[in-house]
Amino acid sequence: MAVLAPRKTERRLIDPTALARLRGVTLRARRVVDGILQGLHRSPHQGASVEFAEHKEYAPGDEIRHVDWKAYARFDKYYVKKFEQETNLQALAVLDCSASMGYGADGVLTKYDYAAVLVTTLAHLLLRQQDAIGLVKYADEVSQVLPPRARANHMGHLVEALDKAKVKGGTNLEAGLAAVVEFSRRRGMVFVFSDFFGDAERPFGMMRQLVGRGQQVTVFHVLDGDELTLPFDEMTLFEGMESKARLLVEPRLVRKAYLAKMAEHQEEIRRRCLESQVGYQLVDTREAPGDIVLRLLKSGGADRKAG
User: Is the distance from CB of 137 to CB of 168 less than 8 angstroms?
Assistant: First the structure.
């Protein structure tokens, strides 16, 4: 896969703080998309399409309509035009809409909003390549499924579904992946966006099942900067977002133990991904979304491996 390296002026396209000042996932995603990729990679597979690739000498079985008659007049030999064919990739984004995804540090995007920007950015790139992308939203249960489409107007439906989502309830990734199993009848890609604050054993079993069926699965482990560093210094009242638990804590006294637990959580998800042959991307909401997408592309996580 060929990916053009961004110019240094494009590296922070666009800072999460600046994104938080923009309204609507469409505008945010377009700001991220601009400058990320100039010229998308082409499929190595050959077939009939609109992009001319090269000539080859005619052989029995080749379509007559692809004969280059100008080349025949010049060389007195029959040559057939070969064309690049887009693979018609099918992708599904599985998006966690549970209450914990509604957390966001002051002045930046919530985890849900950040994930929605990533989903829309990937959708822009895939639809520009005439590939299909769908969406599964879930919390305690699946709240909406948009089947994969490659139509031009599909982006509007996708953005509408992202904009109107309400983060609430617990995290039941198993339900979201069950919908993927139902819709993934052909090989393709599955992007999973979650903070993984829920049971992981059964969902990763389902991801292994998807990988076994030829799906290329990538996990986006979405965490807020506050969750990663616990930056609070004063006595703080913490309230559960998926429960009614409340805890008054002196952060400086628990920071070391908390950070050890958070590191353990990240390592568990990373390890399960490795064991399941699933790609892993840690998403720190303090990082520019464009950098996350570029990292995915460079790792081959958005390469065309589906036929």
Answer: no
Domain boundaries, the chain: 8-42+88-298, 46-84
- Which residues, including other chains, have CB under 8 Å from residue 127's CB and lie 6 or more apart? 133, 150, 152, 154, 155
* 57 token code pair: 């000498």
Record the tokens describing residue 283, joined without a space: 């998403």
Q: Which residue has the higher pLDDT, 36 or 202?
A: 202
Residue from 100, 303, 305, 124 nearest 221 by CA: 100
User: What is the tens place of the pLDDT at every residue in 107-149?
Assistant: 788 999 999 999 998 998 888 878 899 999 999 999 999 999 9
25 contact partners, CB below 8 Å, separation of at least 6: 113, 116, 117, 120, 159, 162, 163
- CA distance to 95, 98, 134, 168, 193, per residue, from 171 (Å): 11, 5, 20, 9, 11
**CATH top class, domain 8-42+88-298:** alpha beta
Q: Tell which residue, 102, 116, 52, has the closest CA to residue 79.
A: 52
